[in-house]
Amino acid sequence: MHEHARPARAESRRRLGLVLALTCGLLAFEAAAGVLTHSLALLADAAHLLGDAAAIGLSFLALTVAGRPPDPRRTYGFHRVEILAALANGVLLVLLSLVILFEAWERFRRPSPILGAPMLVAAAVALAVNVASLRLLHPGATESLNLKAAYLEVLSDALASLGVVAAAVVILATGWLAADAVVSGAIGLFLLPRTFLLLRDAVDVLLESTPAGVDAGSLRRAIAAVPGVAAVHDLHVWSLTSGLHAMSAHVVRAEGTAHDDLLLRVRETVLHGFDVHHVTLQVESPGCEDAAHE
């Protein structure tokens, strides 16, 4: 089942593994640079990376678990683990954004001396590594909520590094230490709305809402228009995980219509006309439909 999805998930897992290794290496580098240069900004960014490394590791684990085959207890497999990880990542991103805002306010109130030149070099290296990670994640970020979560986390790292670069340049040029706090606050405000969108998408999947790319009304009308269909009821469309949609429906066949032929025509209509990958249909004879389910 869903064999076409396995190569894409394996590639996503490979890319996440590379990004996780880059993030852990960058975390160690920034922590050491922060200690050696007494840069609070670099240490704060290293703390940010620590949270992101944990979140990306969770995403990597989720993709590994989600690839396990179905069993008698979990007949759809473990696809929802990916959504749970995306939800956890979204919550973590909200917390990190709030921490950034709090730290920015504290630094603005009480600026501390910063060694601008070493700070600039370390931030530039961090920015280069983050850009490489973004390039690795970008191909799958539009297809998977899990990769989207990881992409947003690395994007937050890249923005933080860019902010540290900008702050270091301002500090070196003007001596204005509050530049670090201003940039950090802007990063926190930038991340919050995007994180809330991620949380909304994950919650929609868990609530089995109709996927954004599927119009349930158009789907119902398309099924009803198939020759031999007398009525459609109990139509449901939901997502098993990001990019993997399922539907079920009861279809009433018209008099004289062959059951198997109708089943085949309706399945072809759904699979070829809509972004649906798993179809479950119950074909009913005229008069057998339950009007209470309308």
Main attributes?
294 residues; single chain; 3-stranded mixed sheet; Alpha-lytic protease prodomain-like; Alpha-Beta Plaits; mainly alpha; 10% strand
Structure notes:
There is one protein chain. The chain is built from eight helices and three strands; from the N terminus they run H-H-H-H-H-H-H-E-E-H-E. The protein has helices at 5-37, 40-66, 80-109, 116-141, 145-174, 179-206, 216-224, 259-273; strands spanning 229-241, 244-253, 278-284. Helix 3 (80-109) packs parallel to helix 5 (145-174). It folds into two domains: 5-206, Cation efflux protein transmembrane domain (Alpha-lytic protease prodomain-like), CATH 1.20.1510; 216-293, Alpha-Beta Plaits (2-Layer Sandwich). By secondary structure, the protein is mainly alpha-helical. Helix 8 (259-273) links the parallel strand 2 and strand 3 (278-284). The mean pLDDT is 83. The chain is elongated. It has a three-stranded mixed β-sheet with strand order 1-2-3.
